[in-house]
Amino acid sequence: MYDPKFRMAILICLIVFFYTVIQLVLAIINPESTFSVKPYLWGSFLIGGASFGGFIFIWGCVKYITFERSKAEKMTDGTLFDETGTGFNMPVHLNKFIPDIIAAPTLANAHPLEEELIGFLNGFKHWPTDLEDSNKPDLATASMQMWEAVQRVPHVDFPHRIAALASDLSKIYLFKESRKLYPIWMFWRPASVSFKKRCDEHAGYSTFILTTMPSFNKLERSVKQAILTAVRYKDTPTFMPTNASDLTKEIYEALHQAEAIIQNDNERSHAPTDAEKGSLHKEVADYLQSTIKALGIETTVVTSHSHAIYLGDGKLAFRLESFIQALLPSMSPVLRSAFKLWQYNGGSHPANPHFVQAFYNMGALVDKYNDIEARTGIFNLKIAGFPFERMVIIDTKRAGFLQLTRELERRPQLEAPVQVLRNLNDAIIMVRDRAAKMDSLLKKFRKGEVS
Fold it and tell me: Fewer CB atoms inside 10 A, N or C side of the chain?
């Protein structure tokens, strides 16, 4: 009722009132005026009474329609169950199922649902995304940043862009808006707005709001399911259904790659904290055995495409980049962002030493094989004539991986020769170390300390 339009109407009425009073006073005090008070007052009374009566009538109708209906008539307690059986109980206004789409743009290559979502988000330019950090952008700005960033990810289409716009819609229900209204006589003061947290954040609210968009039901069933599943499990990938479509997984990856792009654009890159390193080590320990089994362990037939090779006596060699690639779908999004693993392409990645340290903390890492030490914990091997770079060797017996050890012991022994190849840097460091030891020994010999 006390929105800016209503306040402007009050201001105009006050201006007209004071202008009329001034004109009346000037007409009365002017000696040359033929002003007659009685007809003027009677006419003013008729016009003012009619205006005031019309105002009261319209105000009463609007107040009755908008405010005076009982809660039972205008609200229902709705319960929505998602695919995991989680129920969402909330009082639902019937008009909330019809989203307010404000100034939806007309874009050349955009899907109609994208335009509707942008128009819907235009109504939330004042809505926060984090109550504890006021520097973070509002909901509309943050969603548009995601939408622009996801377009920089290779091979994306309209489902990825729709999911980017819908990924944070749950914050609309997460935060409750409160307005403090001032009396009519303080019409110049705008309402003070505050927010408080209503409930725990759940991506199910995002999918529910997305389904209310008019163009959503025009999508193909497989596309709708892929978008909803990717948005629903964006922050909980370990609960994603195992039969999720390839499009669902592509959307999930694209969303987090877009977040990584935004993080890099904001220059917020930082070294992982000790807590993040500890979480990584825990996840590696939890998923190590299942991840290695998923790589496919070779024992007799070794090719250049082998990922994991059993060397015998409980020792297992595997490609570090293959292990990380297989582990990524099970890792939490927070850790993948902290270690910059959303666009992992193998090679000498900055996260490699952290994974090696995780193997060391478990007591599984073998840092010396065939009397040759790997300073970084990573070997370059030559097995059955095929070169293998960035290989990690673990001892399953020493680490206490009983299930994996039993499975390996049932396999035949590897008969192909295993050679450790030195890279140039390791060879240079080894020569320098041996030269330093020899110099120290010669000095002691000259001093007579060694006979």
Answer: C
> Do 254 and 282 share a domain, yes or no?
no
For 187-234, write each residue's pLDDT tens digit: 677 778 888 888 888 888 888 889 888 888 889 999 999 999 999 998
Q: Tell the burial category of 120 from Cβ atoms under 10 Å away from its Cβ (0-12, 13-18, 19+).
A: buried
Residues contacting residue 11 through CB under 8 Å, at least 6 positions apart: 187
User: How many separate domains does the chain show?
Assistant: 3
Task: Look up the domain containing 107 and give its range.
Answer: 76-265
Sequence-distant (≥ 6) Cβ neighbours of residue 357 within 8 angstroms: 277, 281, 377
Q: What's the CA gap between 143 and 130, in Å, rounded?
A: 13
| Residues 287 and 215 placed together within one structural domain of the fold | no
Cα–Cα distance measured from residue 322 to residue 294, given in angstroms and rounded to the nearest whole number: 10
Residues 342-369: what's their mean pLDDT?
A: 83
What is the pLDDT at residue 226?
A: 92
d(Cα 222, Cα 110) in Å, to the nearest integer? Answer: 19
User: What are 69-121's pLDDT values in tens digits?
Assistant: 444 344 444 555 555 556 655 554 444 456 778 878 888 788 999 999 999 99
- Domain membership of residue 446 (yes or no) is no
Per the DSSP assignment, residues forming a β-bridge with 78 are 90
- 356-375 in b/e form (b: 16+ CB < 10 A) is bbbbeebebbbbebeeeebe
pTM: 0.58
Q: What angle do CA 233, 238, 239 make, to 5 degrees?
A: 55
Strands (E), 145-228: 175-180, 192-197
Q: Contact, 197 vs 174, CB < 8 A?
A: yes
Buried b (16+ CB within 10 A) or exposed e, 282-310: ebbeebbbebbebbebbbeebeeebbbbb
Smallest CA-to-CA distance from 82 within 143, 170, 163, 161 is with 170
